[in-house]
């Protein structure tokens, strides 16, 4: 049996990036996708929302660029750490459940603590006072890396060598993914109406590498008839390019601009399902780099926000988003150029499919309320609290994509060192409500859609630091 490596190196970001502004991202590691458990679009912290006019508007609401005066160049970095604990229970089920070696190597506690970084670079200008706005940005709203700790008890074990990769290995050993956006945006300000509109277009480079334990029959047996080793490994390495677009509107509801409202729509990558091409292997059944495509879909997003300067030194901010993760029905590995043929719940019986992972996610809603206070005119302190619903139902949780109801708190400060140079620093703590799964759907699916149970208890926390520097003129 072939054992997976202890970790998978991060993919390099230097991938023929199409815009000069992307040069600032070339040496930075990846951030995380919702599908890998981290938050998406955390750059900007409380400054990133549809009613605030700044360089982050290129992504959050191109219409809000109309609220800017002059030129803004911003470089931002997010440093995020994630802790996740998973205790796989003996109710996971297998033909080998009565075997003490099976029970010890396939159940019990698994842990990860991963630290990631993600960049943002943005630029917006009004061309010296015109009504037109132009913006450009490079960023990673979806991306991440997962690498689990090892179970030293099974290092070099002759009876259950796969147990070295942990009890969670049937869902994930290691994975990394990123969607790198290169975006151009145009906005226009209607001065009398105090109204702004904007649109953007993006070119996205998405890549994904995944290693997990896998048996051909979708079970989690470590040995077959006669006691021969059965447990194998699947390896996936795919990438591709996708287009996307967004549009937004911004309105200064009062003449003094104290109350601002914004809303935007951001399309899914490729405006629906994306196809990533590369290689897939299942060791020992079909070893080697076999050509394959991954078919999956990320969400489109509706955002809304308001900012109200209730006093010269105090601003109340509200925003939220609706992310249509119900489009993420499956992750389907197919023969090149073919379709998945999955039903509405993500299950496929097509002969073109090498492996189907039904996801059957739900749309999510996030609501955030915050306040900003100017200690002195040059220094803004801000804080917020957010609630977000989970995309996953309990029956479709697993250690790779675990998510639950999120409670999020942010504190930060933004300071103007001169008329032109601003810097900000913030900290966000995210608590995911613990949960226990006793009805995992994965072992109940047929054929290539079947995977081992992900029953067990889950708990996770995230710690996110965001820092930025801006030059305005």
Describe the structure.
The protein has 473 residues and is mainly beta. The chain has a single domain, classed as Porin (Beta Barrel). It contains 2 helices and 18 strands. The chain has a 14-stranded antiparallel β-barrel. Strand 8 and strand 9 form a beta hairpin. The chain is elongated and about 80 Å long. The N terminus is likely disordered.
Question: What's the SSE blueprint?
Answer:
Elements: H1 57-60, E1 71-88, H2 100-106, E2 108-125, E3 132-147, E4 174-190, E5 195-214, E6 232-252, E7 259-266, E8 273-283, E9 286-297, E10 301-311, E11 314-323, E12 330-334, E13 353-358, E14 364-376, E15 379-388, E16 406-416, E17 421-437, E18 456-472
Antiparallel strand pairs: 1-2, 1-18, 2-3, 3-4, 4-5, 5-6, 6-7, 6-8, 7-10, 8-9, 9-12, 10-11, 11-14, 12-13, 14-15, 15-16, 16-17, 17-18
């Amino acid at each position: 049996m072939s054992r997976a490596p202890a970790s998978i190196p991060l993919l390099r970001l230097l991938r023929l990036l199409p815009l000069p502004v992307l040069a600032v991202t070339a040496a930075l590691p990846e951030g995380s996708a919702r599908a890998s458990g981290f938050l998406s679009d955390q750059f900007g912290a409380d400054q990133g929302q549809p009613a605030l006019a700044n360089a982050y508007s290129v992504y959050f609401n191109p219409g809000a660029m109309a609220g800017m005066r002059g030129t803004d160049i911003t470089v931002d970095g997010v440093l995020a750490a994630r802790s996740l604990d998973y205790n796989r229970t003996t109710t996971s089920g297998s033909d080998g459940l009565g075997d003490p070696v099976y029970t010890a190597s396939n159940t019990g506690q698994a842990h990860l603590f991963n630290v990631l970084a993600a960049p943002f670079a943005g630029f917006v200008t009004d061309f010296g006072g015109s009504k037109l706005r132009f913006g450009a940005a490079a960023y990673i709203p979806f991306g991440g890396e997962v690498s689990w700790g090892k179970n030293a008890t099974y290092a070099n074990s002759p009876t259950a060598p796969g147990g070295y990769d942990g009890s969670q290995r049937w869902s994930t050993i290691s994975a990394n993914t990123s969607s790198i956006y290169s975006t151009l945006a145009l906005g226009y300000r209607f001065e009398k109406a105090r109204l702004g509109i904007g649109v953007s277009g993006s070119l996205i480079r998405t890549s994904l590498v995944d290693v997990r334990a896998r048996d051909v029959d979708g079970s989690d047996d470590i040995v077959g008839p006669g006691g021969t080793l059965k447990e194998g490994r699947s390896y996936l390495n795919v990438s591709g390019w996708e287009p996307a677009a967004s549009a937004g509107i911004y309105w200064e509801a009062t003449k003094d601009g104290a109350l601002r409202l914004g809303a935007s729509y951001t399309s899914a990558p490729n405006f629906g399902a994306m196809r990533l091409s590369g290689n897939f292997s299942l060791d020992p059944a079909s070893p080697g780099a076999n050509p394959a495509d991954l078919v999956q879909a990320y969400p489109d997003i509706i955002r809304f926000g308001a900012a109200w300067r209730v006093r010269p030194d105090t601003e109340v901010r509200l925003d939220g988003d609706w992310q249509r993760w119900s489009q993420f029905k499956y992750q389907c590995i197919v023969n090149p150029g073919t379709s998945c043929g999955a039903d509405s719940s993500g299950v496929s019986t097509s002969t073109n499919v090498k492996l189907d992972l039904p996801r059957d996610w739900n749309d999510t809603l996030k609501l955030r309320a915050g306040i900003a206070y100017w200690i002195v005119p040059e220094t803004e302190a801000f804080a917020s609290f957010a609630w977000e619903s989970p995309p996953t139902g309990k029956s479709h949780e697993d250690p790779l994509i675990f998510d639950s109801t999120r409670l999020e708190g942010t504190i930060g400060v933004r300071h103007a060192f001169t008329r032109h140079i601003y810097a900000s620093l913030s900290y966000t703590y995210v608590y995911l409500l613990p949960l226990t799964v006793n009805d995992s759907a994965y072992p109940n699916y047929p054929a290539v859609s079947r995977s081992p149970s992900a029953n067990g208890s889950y708990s996770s926390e995230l710690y996110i630091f965001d820092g930025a520097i801006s030059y305005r003129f």
